[in-house]
Amino acid sequence: xxxxxxxxxxxxxxxxxxxxxxxxxxxxxxxxxxxxxxxxxxxxxxxxxxxxxxxxxxxxxxxxxxxxxxxxxxxxxxxxxxxxxxxxxxxxxxxxxxxxxxxxxxxxxxxxxxxxxxxxxxxxxxxxxxxxxxxxxxxxxxxxxxxxxxxxxxxxxxxxxxxxxxxxxxxxxxxxxxxxxxxxxxxxxxxxxxxxxxxxxxxxxxxxxxxxxxxxxxxxxxxxxxxxxxxxxxxxxxxxxxxxxxxxxxxxxxxxxxxxxxxxxxxxxxxxxxxxxxxxxxxxxxxxxxxxxxxxxxxxxxxxxxxxxxxxxxxxxxxxxxxxxxxxxxxxxxxxxxxxxxxxxxxxxxxxxxx
Amino acid sequence: xxxxxxxxxxxxxxxxxxxxxxxxxxxxxxxxxxxxxxxxxxxxxxxxxxxxxxxxxxxxxxxxxxxxxxxxxxxxxxxxxxxxxxxxxxxxxxxxxxxxxxxxxxxxxxxxxxxxxxxxxxxxxxxxxxxxxxxxxxxxxxxxxxxxxxxxxxxxxxxxxxxxxxxxxxxxxxxxxxxxxxxxxxxxxxxxxxxxxxxxxxxxxxxxxxxxxxxxxxxxxxxxxxxxxxxxxxxxxxxxxxxxxxxxxxxxxxxxxxxxxxxxxxxxxxxxxxxxxxxxxxxxxxxxxxxxxxxxxxxxxxxxxxxxxxxxxxxxxxxxxxxxxxxxxxxxxxxxxxxxxxxxxxxxxxxxxxx
Amino acid sequence: xxxxxxxxxxxxxxxxxxxxxxxxxxxxxxxxxxxxxxxxxxxxxxxxxxxxxxxxxxxxxxxxxxxxxxxxxxxxxxxxxxxxxxxxxxxxxxxxxxxxxxxxxxxxxxxxxxxxxxxxxxxxxxxxxxxxxxxxxxxxxxxxxxxxxxxxxxxxxxxxxxxxxxxxxxxxxxxxxxxxxxxxxxxxxxxxxxxxxxxxxxxxxxxxxxxxxxxxxxxxxxxxxxxxxxxxxxxxxxxxxxxxxxxxxxxxxxxxxxxxxxxxxxxxxxxxxxxxxxxxxxxxxxxxxxxxxxxxxxxxxxxxxxxxxxxxxxxxxxxxxxxxxxxxxxxxxxxxxxxxxxxxxxxxxxxxxxx
Amino acid sequence: xxxxxxxxxxxxxxxxxxxxxxxxxxxxxxxxxxxxxxxxxxxxxxxxxxxxxxxxxxxxxxxxxxxxxxxxxxxxxxxxxxxxxxxxxxxxxxxxxxxxxxxxxxxxxxxxxxxxxxxxxxxxxxxxxxxxxxxxxxxxxxxxxxxxxxxxxxxxxxxxxxxxxxxxxxxxxxxxxxxxxxxxxxxxxxxxxxxxxxxxxxxxxxxxxxxxxxxxxxxxxxxxxxxxxxxxxxxxxxxxxxxxxxxxxxxxxxxxxxxxxxxxxxxxxxxxxxxxxxxxxxxxxxxxxxxxxxxxxxxxxxxxxxxxxxxxxxxxxxxxxxxxxxxxxxxxxxxxxxxxxxxxxxxxxxxxxxx
Lengths: 355, 355, 355, 355
What we know:
Four copies of one chain form a homotetramer.
Chain A: E1 5-6, E2 11-16, E3 22-28, H1 38-48, E4 65-67, E5 71-72, E6 75-76, E7 81-86, H2 96-100, H3 108-115, H4 131-144, E8 149-157, E9 160-161, H5 182-197, E10 204-211, H6 225-234, E11 239-244, H7 255-258, E12 262-263, E13 270-271, E14 279-280, E15 283-284, E16 289-295, E17 305-308, E18 314-317, H8 327-354
Antiparallel strand pairs in A: 1-2, 2-3, 3-7, 4-7, 5-6, 8-9, 8-10, 10-16, 11-16, 12-13, 14-15, 17-18
């Protein structure tokens, strides 16, 4: 067990605060002999990087990753891979307000309640900045599962969903919202702009699909593939819900409606539906693994909210500073990374037991 | 890591198959000196026990638990507590059909794909029978967190939800559905009866509330309280979704709508709302911990479904035998147990680090 | 982490006290498809079983193991294997003396200091009886590493060592001491008899050799093969020292004397010596893995020893009852089991990372 | 589980190779609120630092540690503490010989056998340089157990032992050998000088004592205090043996000779001896924890040794370069660090379960 590690045999540990000198991850258990350089990781960090459009926080971080260990002559050696990302744009501002009062919805009060005090600069350890470490670790994980293709996208912002019939994966990279439906992307431009200008924020739903996962990955009963995915995704900042396959929708169906009938196929069965989201009994079935993740609206808003100070006095707080109007957008590469990390770990667990 | 263990410092390991001689759990890390006997565990097993109404499977299992270790003179000793429940009603039936073909929605195909073969009698290890072990372990966990009260209930069956305004916790034990709204309970009687008679099945949503959790439990970042709850609940048989607090609903809100404002209170802040479900930054806030769990409809239905045989031939299968028409109902004590197990583990983790 | 579990991916958990109804182990992570029945385990339990000669405790325990889960149609299914051994000969005696005062050298005082009280009947959880669970688990492990042959023996009793030149593995089973040197076995007969009659006890050194371990097993840096073996063996009751290869002897050598030169061989190098005990850098080299384990003399002796009571009063105590005059003898199958368990775990860890 | 992490709730992960840009450790689970700066760590690194006398390797490394996270306003925050030490003196030399042939006694062959290739520059990950990370992590651990005083020393070099009657802890810092007996220190000067000049090397025994450990620490049965110490110390480079208390000497004693009688004391019992080394049943007794660790002679010697090349050809190898003539000497601060790390982890585990 470890508070800041994740995974069983492909395991990563992250460290670092929003406004410290750097953040990073140590990836342990990576198979040897894989070609790896910073160039394999950087594109994923770039996708998550802030400041790329007006729809994300304006903090300017190049998020340049450095590999400090575990690679020799361009290949992984099987020893721990230390990844470091320097913090560059820790704006020297006055934190006295955040230090003195709790921002509702943030981790401020909970951290103080647990640890007795907290690093209040930019949210410290609870900042979404930490997710850059996950994305970097996830980029390494992808190299271990080349048979798998992971694609995430935003499915809804502020309750405005894409039209599933218009889903086009090729569109995801064509707009600042990771939106697979160009009409929705257009609507969201105004939606998010309005929220941003109003100092408000919006929730979002991110969906993710992993194809190429063979049947048999998953470690029942207490490291089930779906349970591990739920753990990984619920642990992302601002996430409040996770669904596999049909999710809450399945709870409203009958057994007949929810059945994924099977027919003989060329390589394993052909499934006539995928309500299961590619997982049965905690084990992959060979169908695409499908999941959905609910991001709450960013808690940092300009509207004053009632709160209390560290001393327990009544107060109001407006969260100024540079914030994402919809934190779910930048959640897309993070969800992808967490899915990659879980699948990689399960692949290695599988071959530990099965060979 | 372990495939069949759960928890970091309060850790349990389960074993056993549906039709083997027994099932059980080993609970490790329990504090010493707690009063414990079978009588502390049995009521929770009785709540989960099948065959108590026509709305659950008719398999007759007394589910009598035996404590085989870890207790001396009526008190826990701090050593592992071995709990065993004998299987009594393994009906000797003909399993040739299930052995030969895969039941869609079940773990059959996935287990075969992973392990090469499977114990097909009653679902073997993938049977919901295993959850009796969780409930027994959860009963022990409750003794470690007497400050916490955990209550779960069914919130919806087949899409028919309770009226939140009619919520009455005292009603939960008064009907066979763990339903807090007597009107809904009445409707569900016909709903589930119809499904049962038709050989069909229904999904359900289970909600759970834990009060008395102090602010500060949770181990960020990769053993966050919400992530651990999601892991625990997504790992229950038939579960396809987990929400904390506002869940997917929060994804449709603005920051203002989702804010849980704070006012000075007697003992910590008074929160004006609980969209967060009692958890911020992965740490409890002192508010009630709230979560919702989606159960899919039982996959075992009498309607024939297309499937394939072990040899890859096309076939049809009807799942005869004794099955729950709505597996979510008996999920209620299981959800409670998993929540108890997570909270206990987090309490001990908290005092490991904080003292 | 778990207090009562061992192993990373091949992991077992033990439970049970000396005088409870039973003891047992849950073996998790076992590969599927291995032929397994009680008959594969029983011989190893029989080798450890007490009461077989006058040189061990006279407690009569048949140590019949039952497999309660994880096996179907005679093969392991990949799910947890629950092993149970009933306690039969818990002699109903008066424990008031042991309950009231601490036996020097035993865990009595330490358990009370930690847990506040203890199960004093026969030593409770700290009894060497628990090692039967390890031996049972180890028998399962051996099935996973058929390429490896593990042989342990007693090398010295009470300071009287075998003559290495007379080592004959075939002799180990021919005497009640697991002694590979028939002359030493003869001497030990009188030595142990004298100690037994005097109500005294003797320490012993157990050696173990594992051949067939391929080069490459071991998980540096913090799950090194030698570190895991040291962990496994130091955790056996009464063990106070562990050596790999040259051990403490190597500390008195020069680099030249300690070098294991290599020459080209048919299948990997031919080593000209094995000071390393088959392990370099925490990884197996393909040479036989060699280790030595020091067992202290049984603390239970008839000579009165000064002690204190639970209330802190001065007292004398003589440990009556049925005890091994040399607990190291029955340590032989336990050392073998622990070595098998470590090697199996490392084999699976190796293939997790390397494939 | 993790290959490169150690500890259960106070857990550290190390990374880095001898000739990479840096090495480091991430310390997780540290209690919040402890005063911590680089100045708390540096003295321990300085004690281990090479190049301080002619009796250690001449590699010049300032070993300046940087704290990159987990500390705010001079106090630990409870979040992971990232420690980094830059490698400065990676002498650009010709490694072709080491790359092509295996140095007997080193990890070279085993790493190649496991991973298929290796970072051969200075031993890569298997270099003793990694122990600087342990020492840094150990310095943090010491802050968590201020009640404990840990002192290690060299007890013997090349078979020449100190005179226990002359033991003077104050002398340990007065000579380059961490030797508590000034006469032995004088003898060792010539002994090690001779070995160094001859291009040879010597083994050593390091002893360690931890006072102030209260009775009750230790997590039986599979995280016993003695087993954890054995694991921690056997995992140090070049270690081949670990003893607790009487160790192998106890195996030659009778029960009477080995008994640690108890008398009433002011605060717990007064023990009349400490053959147990402060640990019974895997739990501390309140006596000083005593252990001994055997270091083999450095494998790097100038005398040519027979070996094979990567291609399996016969060859001779002389290990040139800068090496410790007696690696056990610099093992002293490493043993202290590992003992501190184990005790800290056990303290936190203890309070997790006991409160």
